[in-house]
Amino acid sequence: MPNLFGWIGNPAPLSIDYPTWVAFQLTLTSLVAGLTLSGAGITLLVYVIAARRRRIVAPGDVFLPYRPLWALMVAPVMGVTVAILCFAQLNPIVDSITPKAGISAEAFAVTTILSAVIAYVLIVLMPGLTPARFRYRPAWYLYRSKTRSHD
């Protein structure tokens, strides 16, 4: 697996040997990749369930905020999980709290942003995830001729 966090410098180059640091970076890359993809998958599952359960009862319900997109809040949960695991992995090899917090914050940001963006792009692009009654349809689509002309 390529090293996603190769740009993070060794916080204590004199006390942490190179193989240990590279092993940590590869472990962090695996954690971020795994939890980002699983976060996107869980987000899609929660979104589909919430979107299917939403109903239009009154005419004003069409204009209410679209609450199933709150499923994107799974991404920060995955980010916090990665940050905690990263901090725990750094505990035995780094003594100072500052680099642990900084690297954990970077892992949190990468995981949260990637997971939310991947999930949102899939929600927008995959047909069938959003029920037809809630999908945006441009005017040219709504008012096109329903009959086909036979030439």
SSE topology:
Layout: H1 18-53, H2 74-90, H3 97-125, H4 139-142
Helix pairs in contact: 1-2, 1-3, 2-3
Task: Characterize the structure shown.
With 151 residues, this protein is mostly helical. It has one domain (18-142). The protein contains 4 helices and no strands. The protein has helices at residues 18-53, 74-90, 97-125, 139-142. The longest helix is centred in the first third of the chain and has 36 residues, at 18-53. The protein starts with 17 loop residues before the first helix and ends in a 9-residue tail after the last helix. The model has no long low-confidence stretch (mean pLDDT 81).
Question: What does this entry show, briefly?
Answer:
The protein is mainly alpha-helical and 151 residues long. The protein contains four helices and no strands.
Q: Which features characterize this protein?
A:
4 helices, 0% strand, elongated, 151 residues
Classify the secondary structure makeup into a structural class: mainly alpha
Helical content stands at 55-70%
Strand count, sense and barrel status of the largest sheet are: none
Q: What gyration radius follows from the Cα positions, in whole Å?
A: 22 Å
Give the termini distance in whole angstroms. 57 Å
Task: Please trace the helix and strand order, writing H or E for each element.
Answer: HHHH
Proportion of beta-strand residues: under 5%
Q: How many distinct beta strands?
A: 0
